[in-house]
């Protein structure tokens, strides 16, 4: 049964309209949800930082890791000797690894099956071995197996770092070469270029634009792997950062040298990380516009 309403003069005007239900609650937009989520995350981080600041044993931490006198005693040797040796070892290993990686990558892409198999075995072998094992074999295993194998320590470090890095860089170079359009090679061959000339004058220069950022990342990893050179032992003048830090910790019975050494590694890796981002932004944006 419908209910009618009447106006002021008594006439009915039609069925009565029921009262509107309560307005639905406004839903949060995606932007508001993201803002709320970030706020919660920041709050959690602030709480964690506050708890660490309140409950940490700061006097013990400072005495164990923040002795200014011990840190000052490491200078200038930590810069003029250890940091310099680390940089030298890193770039020598990188240079050797890049040369080996280029040949291995070309073998990996060769039409000759034997070359492809040899390159694949090489890559999988050295990618599967820990860098520590490579240092131990070259430093201690080879002289035992071959009594005349007495190379200078600098050469052993360079070879070890080169072998470790080349397996990774070979795959990076291979991917960069394959990313170059095949039409570039076909155009070069149509002009009468040989395959090798087309590879070194046309393909590789273009591939380098693609592989520069990942190669820079490999250089960063190699700088950290150079710390394994301390297991070979060295003279005082031949110590890199890890060897110097270990010696200072033994001499001072304190862990402050670890902090100094960590900061020195950051001096190397932070600029390289920035360079990698710049190269990736520059060449990545340049390549994205090429169809």
CATH superfamily placement = MetI-like
Query: How many beta-strand segments?
Result: 2
Shape: flat
Task: Give the spatial strand order of the biggest sheet.
Answer: 1-2
Radius of gyration: 32 Å
CATH fold name: MetI-like fold
Largest sheet: 2 strands, antiparallel
- Structural domain tally: 1
SSE arrangement, N to C: EEHHHHHHHHHHH
The CATH class label is Mainly Alpha
Distance between the termini: 72 Å
Strand portion: under 5%
Mean pLDDT rating: 86
The number of helices is 11
CATH architecture: Orthogonal Bundle
Poorly predicted ranges:
285-291
Coarse structural class: mainly alpha
> Percent helix among the residues?
over 70%
Describe the structure.
Helices cover 74% and strands 2% of the residues. The protein contains eleven helices and two strands. It has helices at 30-55, 58-65, 68-73, 77-108, 113-128, 131-145, 153-179, 182-190, 195-225, 241-252, 256-288; strands at 4-6, 12-15. The longest helix has 33 residues, at 256-288. The chain is flat, with a radius of gyration of 32 Å. It is found in: Cell membrane. This is Polar amino acid ABC transporter, inner membrane subunit.
What descriptors fit this protein?
single chain, 291 residues, MetI-like fold, two-stranded antiparallel ribbon, 11 helices, 2 strands, 2% strand, disordered C terminus
Strands, helices and their partners?
Elements: E1 4-6, E2 12-15, H1 30-55, H2 58-65, H3 68-73, H4 77-108, H5 113-128, H6 131-145, H7 153-179, H8 182-190, H9 195-225, H10 241-252, H11 256-288
Antiparallel strand pairs: 1-2
Helix pairs in contact: 4-5, 4-7, 4-9, 4-10, 4-11, 5-7, 6-7, 7-9, 8-9, 9-11, 10-11
């Amino acid at each position: 049964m419908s209910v009618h309403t009447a106006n002021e003069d008594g006439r009915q005007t039609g069925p009565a309209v029921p009262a509107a239900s309560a307005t639905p609650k406004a839903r949060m937009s995606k932007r508001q949800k993201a803002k709320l989520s970030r706020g919660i995350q920041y709050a959690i981080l602030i709480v964690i930082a506050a708890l660490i600041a309140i409950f940490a044993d700061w006097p013990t931490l400072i005495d164990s890791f923040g002795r200014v006198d011990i840190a000052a005693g490491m200078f200038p040797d930590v810069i003029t000797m250890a940091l310099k040796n680390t940089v030298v070892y890193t770039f020598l290993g990188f240079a050797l690894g890049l040369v080996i990686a280029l040949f291995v990558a070309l073998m990996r892409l060769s039409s000759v099956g034997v070359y492809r198999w040899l390159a694949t075995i090489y890559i999988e072998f050295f990618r599967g071995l820990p860098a520590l094992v490579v240092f131990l074999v070259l430093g201690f295993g080879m002289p035992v197996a071959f009594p005349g194998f007495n190379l200078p320590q600098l050469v052993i470090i360079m070879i070890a770092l080169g072998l470790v890095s080349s397996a990774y860089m070979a795959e990076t170079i291979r991917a960069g070469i394959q990313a170059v359009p095949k039409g570039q090679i076909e155009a070069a061959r149509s002009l009468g270029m040989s395959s090798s000339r087309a590879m070194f004058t046309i393909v590789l220069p273009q591939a380098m634009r693609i592989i520069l950022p990942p190669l820079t990342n490999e250089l960063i990893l190699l700088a950290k792997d150079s710390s394994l050179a301390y297991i070979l032992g060295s003279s005082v003048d031949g110590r890199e950062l890890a060897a110097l830090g270990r010696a200072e910790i033994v001499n001072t019975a304190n862990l402050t040298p670890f902090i100094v050494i960590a900061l020195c590694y950051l001096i190397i890796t932070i600029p390289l990380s920035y360079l990698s981002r710049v190269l990736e932004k520059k060449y990545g944006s340049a390549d994205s516009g090429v169809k």
